[in-house]
Each structure stands twice: as structure tokens, then as C-alpha cells.
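Severity: low
Component: inverse-folding endpoint
Summary: output formatting inconsistent between runs
Steps to reproduce: submit the following C-alpha cells with default settings.
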């Protein structure tokens, strides 16, 4: 570690110690049905959301927690895998996992590592730097993370606990916890979405942009990219940069979308209070935002447009696809396009039963379509499938009483978007959303223990003063 970074790490520890108040532990240990200690909170997913949630809980003196991630240490989340852009899209001064602690910001890390001039010269944050920053963040905060551990089942357990089944190279084990936070990323409540006409194609011909792709194999080949959001352009760009013979980007809409709705909604009022609006307002806003999808920045477009092999087709939804000896023939509203390989950059779908850890109770997770019926002009079945979350990000039951224990499972990912606006997992919303989640978790833990707190208060007999000593010292 460089001297600058070592000094920053020391500063983080010192600053956090100065603002540790109130530092008294307040949760009593709980034992699971197997006789082993149970966690207060198990966080599934060690990407930026899981890490920031762990930090917020530690600051709230909820220390009996654990973060599990199926990925290897340092490779959590998209940054070193399917994020195919050289830099983050957010402006460099958007703070996030730091939760408003100045010495924990990306800027502080960057300046400590590369100097203040380097920060001033920086345009956007290289995504590898962001991944490095998250590794440092986890280390400096000493967050309890275990990698190579996949949660494959969540079930109710005796004593009002949850039981998570965890698979690792050591086999399967169980962990008990009072609460579970699912910070499982973009596809965490379903899967990557591939349009129906492409679904019969084999992975050698068509994959989702969220999959691992050996980009070098695209050299000299014809590539079709489906979708026109930021990820679609990123995938087209890496194919072009690696020497693809031709890249066709197929945009379903009549025109590509040029505005980025998430920029509009990045203000404290919206981020903090959107979730307090009634269902009609929340539906109206998020339907408009999510139907627009993610806009792409100028540099993302330029990265493609400089290549003569790049062809953009607007108003070209996929109608059908067939495999031929010459490649995949994509039938679009604008005619046919033949490609050797298709990348479908078409977002996610909510489908709870597709996730092993949700399977047991998938059928009873309340969706927006169960709770709110929009005007027919505002209907959208895709968005109706998003989970309808309580004000602490907890799952709600579709049929009350069938699986009441899911009330202790909290979702902190893009799936939270319909209920909370910007979900919190994107950088722009974290400083507002993570404290809100932590507040909901501590509220649940505190209120569930209210009898214990009352008994503890009644038994409290720590005297602050010795009045007899005062009397003895009084002057006659
Ligand atoms: C390509 C791309 C670019 C983006 N660029 C930006 C940007 O510039 N600015 C911005 O604000 N946002 C951006 N985002 C959005 C958001 O910041 C990222 O998606 C970010 O990774 C979200 O963090 P997360 O922790 O919620 O999820 P992730 O980083 O995806 O982490 C989820 C973790 O959960 C683990 N996991 C999942 N299921 C299990 C399980 N059952 N058991 C154990 N572990 C599990 C995964 O291994 C993963 O490490 C981008 C997203 C993508 C996809």
C-alpha cells in the first residue's frame, strides 16, 4: 500500500472513531436451533450495495453480521466482467458507498493514490479503479465478507429466525439470521432478459450482454447487438474495437433515446421521499423512467460511431430469428440482417422462481400487479412484475399468513426501483438509500426486542453519583 493510501486508511479509522457515538452495543446474542450463534443480519451479495449496507449497520452498532458473495474476492459485481465500458457513466463527483464520510469517498482514494492533480485532470472514473476502490473500502472498514459462498435457499427456522443454505467448495452449510438483505445485483430477482424470438438460439450464437463473452472471438465476425441502452453501445464498441467485420445495433424504438432519466431524479428530495409517495405517483414516475431505460453518454456513442463497420438501425424490433449455414438471420421491421453472433443487451426480467434462493416462497412475493391497478393507459406488465416492497425494503406477502417470515427478507437492488425510485444500488442514490435501508433494519431489530429492552431498563441500576459520599464531605 502506498504511503498516501496508508495515511488515508489511518484517517478513515480515526475519523470514524470520532463519530462513533452512540457506541454502546444494543443487541443481545441469539442462538439458532442448531445451538450455534445466529446473525442479526446476513447480507447476500458483496458488491457495492452489500458492502455499504454492512458499513451502515456497523455504524449503527449492529456488528453481528456477515456478507456472503458467490464471486471471488475483488471480482464482485459487473466491474471486471460484463461492464464493457472504459469508465463509469456517473460523473466523478457523485458520492456513494462513502455514505457522506469525506475520507471514504472515491475522490479521497484517488487523490491518496494518484495525487490531487490527477483527480483534477480526471474526466470519468476508470471502472478498474472503481473496482480497486471497493476492495480498499472493504479492507479499511474491516467488513466481514466471505467469498465463494452462494446462498441457494432461504427457509423459516425456529425462534422467528431465517435459515440460509450456503454452498461453497467445502459443501453445503446452514446459517441462521434474524434478517437477510438480498443485495444480489441486477438479475437478483429474476434473470437477464432475452427477447422471445431469440430464445431458441444456442449460446454459441446468442448470449445476453450480462454473460461472459470472449470478446477476442468476435474479430472478423458479423455481430448484431439488440437494444440501444448504454450497455448495448458498450458491447457494440468492444466488438468494433476488437476488429469485428461489422456490427449492427438494432434499436426497437423509432429513435434512439438521448436523455438519461436517472440524471433528472438525482436530487435529495426525490431520492429521499419518493418511496413515501402513494402508489399512483410512484407508478406514474417509475413507469415513465423505466420505459425510457438508461440513456447513454456522448462518449459511449462516439466510441461506436468512429468505426465504419458500425451500423445503427432505428425502428428495428426483432420479429423472428433463424439459424442458417450462413449465420443467424434476424428478421426485423426494417428487413433482414445476418450475423455470426448476437448480443442481447435487453435488460432484466423479474421472475422470482428462477432464483434458487427465492424458489421456496417465490409464489407468495407480492408484486406491483398484486397491489396496484393502474389506469389502462399506464399499464405495463413488465413493471407490474417488480416486487412491491415495504418501507424498509422488506418483501410483502401476496397472500397474508402463508409465508409471514419473508417480512424479514429485504431487497436492495434494481428490483427495489418501482418501490423506491432510484434503488440505492446505483451510485447516485446510495448516500440516501443505504441509510434508509439501515434505518428499516434497525427499526425491525429494535421493535422485535422491545420486551427485552423494557426488562433491561427495569433491571438498570447503574448509579451515576454517590450521594452519601457528598454528605460525608459537607462542611459542618
Ligand atoms: C454495465 C453496468 C454499468 C454500470 N455503470 C454504472 C455507473 O456508471 N454509475 C452508476 O451509478 N451505476 C452503474 N451501474 C449500476 C450499478 O451501480 C451496478 O449495477 C452495481 O454493480 C450495483 O451494485 P450491487 O452491489 O447492487 O450489485 P452487484 O455489484 O451486481 O453485486 C451483486 C453481488 O451479489 C452476488 N450474488 C448474487 N446472488 C448471490 C447469491 N445467491 N449468493 C451469494 N452471492 C450472490 C454476486 O456475485 C455479486 O457480486 C452499472 C451497471 C452495469 C450492469
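Observed output (run 2 of 3):
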Amino acid at each position: 500500500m502506498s504511503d498516501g493510501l496508508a495515511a488515508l486508511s489511518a484517517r478513515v479509522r480515526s475519523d470514524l472513531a470520532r463519530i462513533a457515538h452512540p457506541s454502546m452495543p444494543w443487541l443481545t446474542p441469539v442462538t439458532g436451533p442448531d445451538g450455534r450463534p445466529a446473525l442479526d443480519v446476513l447480507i447476500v451479495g458483496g458488491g457495492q450495495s452489500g458492502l455499504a449496507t454492512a458499513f451502515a449497520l456497523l455504524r449503527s452498532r449492529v456488528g453481528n453480521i456477515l456478507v456472503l458473495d458467490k464471486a471471488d474476492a475483488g471480482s464482485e459485481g459487473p466491474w471486471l466482467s460484463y461492464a464493457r465500458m472504459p469508465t463509469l457513466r456517473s460523473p466523478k463527483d457523485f458520492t456513494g458507498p462513502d455514505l457522506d464520510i469525506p475520507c471514504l469517498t472515491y475522490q479521497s482514494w484517488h487523490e491518496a493514490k494518484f495525487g490531487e492533480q490527477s483527480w483534477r485532470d480526471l474526466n470519468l472514473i476508470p471502472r478498474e479503479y472503481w473496482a480497486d476502490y471497493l476492495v480498499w473500502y472493504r479492507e479499511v472498514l474491516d467488513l466481514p465478507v466471505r467469498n465463494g459462498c452462494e446462498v441457494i435457499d432461504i427457509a423459516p427456522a425456529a425462534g422467528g429466525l431465517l435459515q440460509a443454505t450456503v454452498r461453497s467448495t467445502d459443501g453445503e452449510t446452514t446459517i441462521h439470521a434474524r434478517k437477510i438483505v438480498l443485495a444480489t445485483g441486477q438479475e437478483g430477482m429474476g434473470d437477464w432478459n432475452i427477447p422471445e424470438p431469440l430464445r431458441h438460439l444456442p449460446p454459441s450464437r446468442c448470449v445476453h450482454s450480462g454473460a461472459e463473452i470472449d470478446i477476442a472471438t468476435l474479430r472478423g465476425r458479423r455481430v448484431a447487438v439488440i437494444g440501444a441502452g448504454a450497455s448495448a453501445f458498450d458491447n457494440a464498441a468492444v466488438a468494433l474495437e476488437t476488429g469485428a467485420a461489422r456490427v449492427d445495433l438494432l434499436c426497437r424504438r423509432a429513435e434512439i433515446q438521448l436523455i438519461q432519466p436517472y440524471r433528472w431524479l438525482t436530487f435529495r428530495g426525490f431520492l429521499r421521499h419518493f418511496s413515501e409517495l402513494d402508489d399512483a405517483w410512484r407508478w406514474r414516475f417509475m413507469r415513465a423512467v423505466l420505459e425510457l431505460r438508461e440513456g447513454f453518454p456522448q462518449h459511449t456513442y462516439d466510441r461506436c460511431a468512429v468505426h465504419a463497420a458500425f451500423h445503427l438501425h432505428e425502428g428495428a424490433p426483432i420479429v423472428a430469428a433463424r439459424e442458417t449455414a450462413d449465420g443467424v438471420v434476424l428478421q426485423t421491421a426494417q428487413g433482414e440482417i445476418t450475423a455470426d453472433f448476437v448480443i442481447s443487451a435487453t435488460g432484466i426480467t423479474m421472475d422470482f422462481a428462477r432464483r434458487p434462493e427465492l424458489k421456496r416462497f417465490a409464489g407468495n412475493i407480492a408484486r406491483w400487479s398484486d397491489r396496484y391497478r393502474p389506469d389502462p393507459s399506464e399499464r405495463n406488465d413488465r413493471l407490474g412484475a417488480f416486487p412491491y416492497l415495504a418501507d424498509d425494503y422488506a418483501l410483502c406477502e401476496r397472500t397474508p399468513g402463508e409465508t409471514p417470515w419473508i417480512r424479514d427478507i429485504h431487497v436492495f437492488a434494481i428490483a427495489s426501483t418501482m418501490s423506491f425510485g432510484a434503488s440505492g444500488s446505483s451510485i447516485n442514490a446510495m448516500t440516501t438509500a443505504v441509510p434508509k435501508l439501515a434505518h428499516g433494519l434497525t427499526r425491525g431489530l429494535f421493535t422485535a426486542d422491545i420486551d427485552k429492552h423494557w426488562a433491561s431498563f427495569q433491571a438498570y441500576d447503574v448509579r451515576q453519583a454517590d450521594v452519601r459520599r457528598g454528605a460525608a464531605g459537607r462542611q459542618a
